[in-house]
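Q: what sequence does this backbone want?
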């Protein structure tokens, strides 16, 4: 695996409602280095800071302290839209990440032309359509036969699969998956996760995936981190991660007085 660092979070601090009765420390002196080709799964209870971590990386939330290096660039003070060229992101809500009133092929064209002039004129070339058709066929959902259908007509699983495809059409420096299977039924979630692993492996994508599902966290990737109260309390990789069991994670979680949810135990 490459030694090139794709993401460096250095002593990140983020507090919401500072100085008020509702003050919440979301990240405390948080440091993390993500190397090229890493696939890191992130778990933790509610309020552990997982979503804040994602939003800090994307620039949705500015940090109070620390530094963020992304793709070799200091992006600490860059706004969200300027970081977008480095990132691919799939949200928990299947309704986000696509334009419902546009056709499937138009959504793919917008994603494929990211960083270029945002226009669909003079239209989508035949060669482009064939490329999109081939990519859609990989999903096994029959969407390659519905390329002119409006995305708003698709099911949640179909939209989430399409969003994942869109996020990776132009290989991002970093792919962020924010509980991207949590809103799907188990069968569909499993299918989307299979495709996630396949596309990350084939393209060598550096990936950070938040999940509540301990089995998915163990199954996916080469490294797992557990968060609590804005800090990393467990960081495991390689052979040690491959030999992990759900019982091991439960024990770790209970040892730190974490609040376990049914979703974490049962997936």
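A:
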């Amino acid at each position: 695996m490459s030694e090139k660092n794709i993401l460096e979070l250095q002593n990140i601090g983020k507090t919401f409602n500072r100085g008020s009765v509702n003050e919440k420390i979301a990240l405390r002196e948080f440091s993390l280095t993500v190397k090229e080709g890493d696939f890191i799964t992130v778990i933790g209870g509610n309020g552990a800071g997982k979503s804040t971590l994602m939003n800090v990386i994307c620039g949705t939330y500015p940090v109070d302290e620390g530094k963020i290096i992304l793709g070799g660039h200091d992006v600490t003070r860059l706004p969200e839209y300027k970081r977008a060229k480095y990132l691919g992101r799939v949200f928990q809500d299947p309704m986000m990440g696509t334009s419902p009133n546009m056709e499937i092929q138009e959504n793919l064209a917008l994603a494929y032309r990211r960083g270029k002039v945002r226009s669909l004129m003079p239209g989508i070339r035949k060669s482009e359509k064939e490329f999109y058709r081939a990519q859609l066929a990989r999903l096994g959902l029959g969407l390659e036969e519905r390329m002119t259908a409006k995305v708003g007509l698709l099911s949640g699983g179909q939209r989430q699969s399409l969003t994942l495809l869109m996020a990776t059409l132009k290989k991002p420096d970093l792919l962020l998956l924010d509980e991207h299977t949590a809103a799907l039924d188990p069968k569909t979630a499993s299918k989307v996760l299979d495709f996630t692993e396949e596309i990350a492996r084939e393209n060598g994508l550096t990936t950070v995936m938040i999940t509540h599902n301990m089995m998915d966290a163990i199954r996916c990737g080469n490294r797992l981190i557990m968060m609590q109260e804005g800090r990393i309390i467990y960081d495991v990789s390689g052979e040690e991660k491959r030999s992990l069991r759900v019982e091991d994670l439960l024990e770790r979680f209970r040892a730190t007085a974490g609040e376990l949810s049914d979703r974490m135990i049962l997936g």
